[in-house]
Specification:
The chain is mainly β. Helix content is 0%, strand content 37%. It has no helices and nine strands.
């Protein structure tokens, strides 16, 4: 691991955002934008640039935290290192109480 492959917007976020493609099985480092804290995770799936990697386990039905805020509801259990996207997350972005 020579440099970071993902960024974490706020300490306490459940996910980081890939700044480069990440391959399944790859051990990657991420950096928290504000604190500089390092995170180390082994990817369970390929994670494309701009997509999310799980930093913590999150159970189905729970809120997912990114930017220090709830960004959606987890639809399938998520494990550390999982690719987080529309297959396991229902975004709150366009949910206006419906």
């Amino acid at each position: 691991m020579s440099s970071h492959k993902f960024l974490v917007h706020e300490d306490g976020d459940h996910v980081g955002v890939a700044v480069a493609d990440i391959k399944a099985g790859e051990q990657v480092m991420g950096i928290a934008i504000h604190s500089g804290k390092e995170y180390h995770v082994k990817a369970n799936q390929d994670i494309p640039l701009g997509h999310k990697i799980a930093l913590t386990e999150v159970k189905a039905g729970a809120s997912l935290i990114k930017y220090g805020e709830n960004v959606g509801t987890v639809t399938q259990d998520i494990k550390v290192g999982d690719w987080v996207h529309t297959h396991n997350l229902k975004t709150a972005r366009w949910d206006y109480g419906n």
